[in-house]
Amino acid sequence: MGVFFKDIIGQSTVIDRLRRSVDDNKLAHALLISGPQGNGKLPIAIALANYLLCGKSGGDACGVCPTCVKLGKYIHSDLHFVFPVKKKKGSDSAPVSDDYITEWRELLSKNPYFSYDDWLVKLDVENQQPMIYERESAEILHKLSMQSREGGWKVVIIWLPEKMKEACSNKLLKIIEEPPQKTLFLLVSEEPDKIIATILSRTQRIDVPRIAMGDVENALVARYGLSLNDAKVVAQQSGGNWEKAEEQLSVNEEKALYLDLFMQLMRVAYARNIRDMKAWSEQVAALGRERQKRLLDYCQRMIRENFIMNFREEEMIYMSQAERNFSVRFSPFVNERNIFGIMEELSEAQRHIEQNVNAKMVFFDMSLRMIVWIKNR
Fold it and tell me: CA-to-CA distance for 229 and 317, rounded, in angstroms?
């Protein structure tokens, strides 16, 4: 289904501002909707377009009329999408967004809170850097030169305009400054400073902040059935980025593995069991470099959380129930005398892994050093 204001996670202040602009007939002809990744910029732009094209009052698109049915499938003839694309193998001509509109609709239908990296995967990009090429400007001009097929507004959503070739930007200057009647440009950007100044000067900027932690928590409970405690943990780790929050949910199985490996490491270090340390190091070395780096990130987070747990400030502790169960007894072993040493050992191991040092040696050496710090309590 499509995206409407009711589907947006948080961002009520931004939504109210845009809704009033439509209702009061004070909507600028070109908006630059900018902000960090995962905050819902693109869904907000689509919801605004839907509200405008539906034409019903009441604060949101109705979701049931024939117009909304088409909007829900991203096939409305007066809603145009522009986004970075790759050149096709064996083709000399520059591609345009319509060449990949099927892939775009599929990704939007699956999850409108997708990232640029998700789009790269969908495009199956190898060594190319997707761009919005000069030829796209001619496509936009052609589409906007025609009458609205539905008899109302025409909306162009340009996703990541910072990826536009300069020649494309220059050819769009005039129409962005003086568009045809009832035409709206929505530029959705994560790096507005990379957009040419002449485009920026022709838009009204709408800054969208990170999603509030409470809104992320509520969405996780409502959409995924998480407990309030687990939702709080995921929300804190997401940093107001819904894409990251969903990513955290998708790696629950991997996180369970990391918790198990973290507990093993701390137990063998405390027991000074060299044989088990060697076995632990070999197990971690078999994970592969990226997972090893994520494990070390996880271990550093767990050390921080266990240190904070000693202060008994519940609102500052962000751990799942399984993590808490271990940490209740382990947290006294992390204190002001050893936390910096433990963190440095983990950070140094991470640097060595990034430098492709032999993983077995890195993790065995780290586990040996951990004995000293865990015993230093």
Answer: 10
Same domain membership, residue 121 and residue 201:
yes
Q: How many structural domains comprise the chain? A: 2
29 vs 316: which has the higher pLDDT: 29
Instruction: Give the 3-state secondary structure of 61-119.
Output: CCCCCHHHHHHHCCCCCCEEEECCECCCCCCCCCCCHHHHHHHHHHHHHHCCCCCHHHH
Helices (H), the chain: 12-23, 41-54, 66-72, 101-110, 116-123, 135-145, 166-177, 197-200, 213-224, 228-238, 242-250, 252-271, 274-285, 289-309, 321-330, 339-354, 359-375
Alpha carbons 322 and 24: distance in angstroms, whole number: 51
Our measurement of the distance from residue 260's CA atom to the centroid of its chain's CA atoms, rounded to an integer in Å, reads: 27
Q: Which pLDDT tens digit goes with each residue over 307-319?
A: 999 887 776 777 7
Note the pTM of the prediction, 2 decimals: 0.71
